[in-house]
């Protein structure tokens, strides 16, 4: 026969374990996605300048076309080739612009196409200089409405709360130009 | 005169039932497991899963977790010169549409496999053909890519295969709390693809 005080101790220990397991289960079920660092966003439009920790950026033009010049060869896509031209100035340290993508209104994310790397703003962008160039994204036509350029600070050893830029590209009418666009190479100038 | 003992005589069935009722629970559970395993084996449940998926036609859509795949064709190629070691390869032409949420650099290694004449070739190189010079798959943007499966043989393939079997595998998410990734899983479909011999050097 187990004495009453031992029974109470056992019940108490078992209850504690059950409550702890329930808490762990609830925390696991409601935890945020730990693979994505939390962000708050500065929202700007074409022609406006936004500044975050590493850089200051102005999108000067955004166009959608069906055909682009690829080193003298026409490159025609069944989708839309979105050309985003921008000026970028490093604010403190050199920045590599490694966190640039286009996002659609339904959350799909597009990386810049590597075929036009030479047209992109030259990296690293150094303090005291402004780099100018274009990123090209290949996006289905239904992704133009609400498309935004997203620019984040370069990744660090630890990624935690930070502020990024979201630039509304103004392609909401879904219009795709038909003429072939030449893309000049990216350039650097001294910031005035 | 017969004196009754007060108990009805028991039949053999009743005695057997009584003995069964006295068996320990563990014996019942063991018997149940043996019966279930036997049934599963008898119905073919332990046979190795087919490693080729369902057969589909050339050009037919194969829908995977993150991709729409069409196997459009194959060629046997060898562009090496006389003073080089032979390096025959099978080039697959594949239409791919990535249906995930974020641009993906490449098709997961091991999703495509070529089988011919009892051999298997996998881990292909991507053959970049103008004008698309890089990989990279954007969500809902269909592209055509060419994959070279090197046969890793100096055998001049005196009797090249008329066709090859292409096995397409799906992926499943690796649910790590630290990073997202997808790993190759089971075979979903197999396509018997004509493979014309277009080697420059035979």
Q: How would you characterize the overall build of this protein?
A:
The complex is a heterodimer of chains A (192) and B (202). Helix content of chain A is 14%, strand content 40%. With 192 residues, chain A is mainly β. Chain A has a five-stranded mixed β-sheet with strand order 1-9-8-5-6, with no helix packed on it. In chain A, strands 2-3-4-7-10 form a five-stranded antiparallel β-sheet, with no helix packed on it. Chain B has 202 residues and is mainly beta. Chain B is 14% helix and 37% strand. Chain B contains two helices and ten strands, in the order ααββββββββββ. Chain B has helices at residues 12-21, 25-42, and strands at 54-56, 61-63, 67-77, 89-98, 112-116, 119-121, 125-127, 143-150, 163-175, 180-194. Chain B is elongated and about 100 Å long. Chain A binds chain B through residues 34-35, 70, 73-75, 77-79, 101, 107-111, 113-115, 137-140, 143, and chain B through 101-103, 130-134, 136, 138-142, 177-180.
Topology summary:
The complex is a heterodimer of chains A (192) and B (202).
Chain A: H1 4-30, E1 39-45, E2 49-51, E3 55-70, E4 73-90, E5 100-103, E6 109-110, E7 129-139, E8 148-151, E9 162-168, E10 187-190
Parallel strand pairs in A: 1-9
Antiparallel strand pairs in A: 2-3, 3-4, 4-7, 5-6, 5-8, 7-10, 8-9
Chain B: H1 12-21, H2 25-42, E1 54-56, E2 61-63, E3 67-77, E4 89-98, E5 112-116, E6 119-121, E7 125-127, E8 143-150, E9 163-175, E10 180-194
Parallel strand pairs in B: 1-10
Antiparallel strand pairs in B: 2-3, 3-4, 4-8, 5-6, 5-9, 7-8, 9-10
Question: Descriptors for this entry?
Answer:
heterodimer, A: 192 residues, mainly beta, Immunoglobulin-like, 2 domains, 1 helix, 10 strands, 14% helix, B: 202 residues, five-stranded mixed sheet, 2 helices, elongated
